[in-house]
Amino acid sequence: MTLVDPLSSLARARASVLRTSTAERVADAVREEVVEGRLRPGGRLPEQALCEALGVSRNTVREALSQLVTERVLAREPNRGVFVAEPDADAVRDVYRARRLLETAAVRDGEAWGAQAVTRVRAAVDEGRTAAGRDDWDAVASANQHFHRALVGLGGSPRLDQQMKLLLAEMRLVFHRMSEVRAFHEPYLDRNDAICVLLEAGDRTAAAAEVRRYLADAESQILEAYAHL
Question: What is the pTM (predicted TM-score) of this model?
Answer without folding.
Answer: 0.81
